[in-house]
Design brief:
The protein is of the alpha/beta class and 336 residues long. It is built from twelve helices and 13 strands. It folds into two domains: 166 residues, NAD(P)-binding Rossmann-like Domain (Rossmann fold); 155 residues, Dihydrodipicolinate Reductase, domain 2, CATH 3.30.360. Bound molecules: L-homoserine.
Length: 336
């Protein structure tokens, strides 16, 4: 399978390293023979239909000299050339999803499969992009867009096949959960936020985290998968954690409760807002952990807990999608 990767940030570089190190395993275990034929960062695109030397790309990227590569190309060549799949990993933009929306649209329209770990295009245009993929008879996968490597999306879409999901509820932003955890330990909101930024949990603009928009974007994705609700970011009622304050956090603790930024959807209402939950709730996870509780009609409430971010973790989700794509194309019906 030929792939191009647009976006060589933390996730894109981690993906290249994983492909380099685990290429043989992916081939022998899943029959996935992956050839990276194109890569692009924000300035340079490189393309070679025979396959790129990944070690060389990583080295050049590290030294900031990717534009010295002999196989420079245009983004159009990457997207519309001989690739089977576009892996889109550009930075998240929750305002209009650009430029990712444009790349994804171009690829789907050109009959290419698309894998993304980018919340932006899904938050603003998920229903339209899904329709475009279906119209063009191609696959559009986005396992890494929610929960990093933790398979929240598959939990909702695949693990409960044949059952009706009634509601989903959870903590799907690591930064705010880290801040609230540290506030319980007596740290101010500002100091806790600084720590979260230092640890690399927060978005480039951390207001996306603390004001609830990152959670809302992920809720849109989960709700569309669980309920086919056809929603975008505009349909979510959003409130962040800025105004909670240390006093309220301590009061909750004294009463056996804890503040969490909870995302909720039942297919009709979609909200993100801080709530007090019992200290005994399975959603009471600490630090930057995420937790999603799915309530299914027959099997009841089930909670999945895991790390919600990280370059290598998210790259694992992209690899999961590549394997899923291979299995779907082979049509061998294996359930992964
Ligand atoms: N800023 C996000 C978070 C990163 O804190 O969860 C992962 O999407």
């Amino acid at each position: 399978m030929k792939a191009v990767i647009i976006g060589l940030g933390t996730v894109g570089r981690a993906l290249l390293r994983e492909v380099q190190e685990r290429g043989h395993e992916l081939k022998s275990k899943y029959g996935l023979n992956l050839k990276v034929v194109g890569v692009a960062d924000s300035k340079t695109a490189v393309y070679n239909e025979e396959g790129l030397n990944i070690a060389e790309i990583l080295k050049m990227k590290e030294r900031g000299i990717l534009n010295d590569h002999p196989n420079r190309a245009s983004l159009t060549e990457l997207i519309k050339g001989g690739t089977d799949v576009l892996v889109e990993l550009t930075p998240t933009n929750l305002k209009d999803g650009m430029p990712a929306v444009r790349y994804i649209r171009e690829a789907l329209s050109a009959g290419k499969h698309v894998i993304t770990a980018n919340k932006g295009p899904l938050a603003v245009e998920m229903p339209a992009l899904m329709e475009l993929a279906e119209y063009n008879g191609v696959h559009f996968l986005f396992s890494g867009a929610v929960g990093g490597g933790t398979p929240f999306i598959r939990f909702v879409s695949r693990c409960l096949l044949g059952e009706r999901v009634i509601r989903i509820r959870g903590i799907i932003n690591g930064t705010t959960n880290y801040i609230l955890t540290r506030m319980e330990e007596g740290l101010s909101f500002e100091k806790a936020l600084k720590e979260a930024q230092k640890l690399g949990y927060a978005e480039a603009d951390p207001s996306a985290d603390v004001d609830g928009w990152d959670s809302a974007a992920k809720l849109v994705i989960l709700s569309n998968v669980a309920f086919q609700s056809g929603v975008t970011l505009r349909d979510v009622e959003v409130e962040g954690i800025r105004d909670i304050g240390l006093e309220n956090v301590s009061d909750a603790l004294r009463n056996g409760e804890t503040y969490k930024l909870i995302a909720y959807s039942d297919g009709e209402s979609h909200l993100v807002k801080p709530q007090r939950i019992s200290l005994k709730s399975p959603l009471n996870v600490k630090g930057a952990l995420n937790a999603l509780q799915v309530e299914a009609e027959i099997s009841g409430k089930q909670t999945l807990v895991g790390k919600g971010a990280g370059g290598r973790e998210t790259a694992a989700a992209v690899i999961r999608d590549l394997v899923e794509l291979k299995v779907r194309l082979a049509g061998d019906g294996r359930c992964l």
